[in-house]
Design a protein that fits this description.
The structure is a single chain. By secondary structure, this protein is an all-alpha fold. It has seven helices and no strands. The chain has one domain. The longest helix has about 35 residues. The chain is globular, with a radius of gyration of 19 Å. The chain starts with 7 loop residues before the first helix and ends with a helix.
């Protein structure tokens, strides 16, 4: 068996480059998308309409209606949803518990559009299953928000 010729410094640099790539190529654009989406919704006044319209639905999870924007952003990228939730938290629109409820939902449902296109459409899955395959991550997000609320209630 041949010994590995790379040293710890080379491995560290290789890992750092990979981390930088992930940050710059994947996470940063998603965060910019989330920021742009929230800013657009605020400037146009649509955030207030979204909040009012979705208060009853999001209230089931102990969240204000505006928090639905984080889930909308997560449709496009997990990081965008999480960044949108973090932005809402930073602005005082949601508290730490509400952000805790949103984060797992953003990750569970995150990047739904991209994954659907890259996996379901490319795989040649039967088209009659498309609605179910599209709905499954959304249902998972709903379940995880309820479970997170229950866990928080038990331990808070």
């Amino acid at each position: 068996m041949q010994a590995n010729n790379t040293n710890i410094v080379e491995e560290f640099v290789k890992g750092a480059k990979k981390g930088l790539y992930i940050g710059l190529e994947m996470i940063a654009p998603a965060m910019v998308l989330a920021y742009a989406l929230i800013t657009f919704l605020k400037i146009t006044g649509l955030m207030n309409y979204i909040g009012d319209a979705l208060n009853p639905v999001m209230g089931l999870f102990g969240l204000p209606g505006e928090s639905a924007v984080a889930l909308l952003a997560a449709f496009f990228a997990k990081a965008a949803g999480c960044a949108a939730a973090a932005s809402l938290f930073a602005e005082g629109k949601i508290d730490a518990i509400q952000a805790t409820v949103l984060f797992p939902a953003c990750v569970t449902m995150g990047t739904l559009i991209g994954h659907f296109a890259r996996i379901v459409l490319v795989s040649g899955a039967n088209k009659k299953f498309y609605p179910l395959l599209f709905a499954a991550p959304i249902i998972d997000a709903v379940v995880v928000m309820f479970l997170t609320r229950i866990i928080i209630a038990l331990f808070h």
